[in-house]
Design goal:
The chain is an alpha+beta fold and 268 residues long. The protein has 8 helices and 11 strands. The protein has helices at residues 10-20, 23-26, 39-44, 62-77, 137-142, 147-150, 162-169, 175-183, and strands at residues 80-89, 92-101, 106-115, 118-127, 130-134, 157-160, 189-197, 200-207, 215-219, 226-231, 236-243. The radius of gyration is 19 Å and the shape is elongated.
């Protein structure tokens, strides 16, 4: 590997995808406010889901079903949104705060990784089908790069080749979770009832008929300014809160002078 041209190849990226847990693979899957709903929401997204309260059953689920259909329409039409959440697998936890361009498929934000031998913060940009990562030396060493080569990437973005970029971006692409909610037919949705969330009373929906199917919470007052997605399938815990639906999110590649080797790593 030449100094100044750290390139991420698919073989090494697979090491990272296994290490950090590929959320998109393991999970199936009105304008809101521009800030997270509350500090409590962020805290809730980091708690163990085993302590969740049992929903209070509804006498008539029609209102909740209609709200879910409205949410499906909102997701299908939204230009952009924000997402904050955590995923935990094999003792390793990732916490991400991302902004998504739902029209172009781009996103950007920060990721904190803890557990095992890793404790680090990353910056992630996905735009134009390419992925840029800015991380500490330890990140690149975890991908298999030698210390002398990994150290030159400190404080710089590194662009991944397209196939490798797809693999490394998948764990942070929470848009896929929202897409899952639009693909589920109402006949496969179970309205469990109401629960008290950090944002007040919410309807809880099970997305599928399996025992480990993920579930979604929507505000029962009908204000679709936030949603919570939870999954505990495949020994993975995921808790993601979405908000800011309709936001104008414009994701761009980082400036060339912030990319290691300029744009030398870009695929042609």
């Amino acid at each position: 590997m030449r100094r100044g041209c750290l390139r991420a190849d698919p073989g090494r990226v697979r090491i990272k995808a296994t290490c950090l847990g590929a959320v998109a693979i393991m999970l199936i899957s009105g304008c809101g406010q521009e800030e997270p709903p509350s500090d409590a929401a962020s805290t809730a997204a980091q708690e163990n889901m085993s302590g969740e309260e049992s929903p209070e059953p509804l006498d008539d689920p029609q209102e909740a079903e209609e709200l879910f259909e409205d949410f499906q329409d909102l997701v299908s039409e939204t230009a952009g949104f924000r997402a904050e959440g955590s995923t935990t697998v094999e003792g390793q936890t990732q916490r991400a705060d991302m902004a998504f361009d739902a029209q172009d498929g781009g996103f950007e934000g920060t990721v904190s990784v803890s557990g095992g031998n890793l404790d680090m913060d990353l910056e992630v940009i996905r735009a134009n089908d390419l992925t840029w990562i800015k991380g500490p030396t330890e990140y690149w060493e975890s991908l298999g790069y030698p210390s002398d080569g990994a150290s030159v990437a400190e404080g710089m973005y590194v662009v991944f080749e397209m196939s490798a970029g797809d693999a490394v971006a998948d764990p942070y692409d929470y848009a896929r979770l929202l897409e899952q909610t639009t693909a589920v037919a109402m006949s496969d949705i179970t309205v469990e009832g109401t629960v008290e969330s950090s944002q007040g009373e919410a309807f809880r929906y099970v997305l599928g008929g399996d025992e480990d199917s993920p579930w979604l919470e929507l505000p029962s007052n009908g204000d679709l300014d936030s949603a919570r997605y939870v999954s505990t399938a495949n020994d993975l815990e995921a808790d993601v809160r979405f908000w800011g639906f309709g936001a104008d999110v414009d994701v761009e590649a980082p400036p060339p002078d912030e990319v290691l080797g300029g744009m030398e790593g870009r695929s042609s």
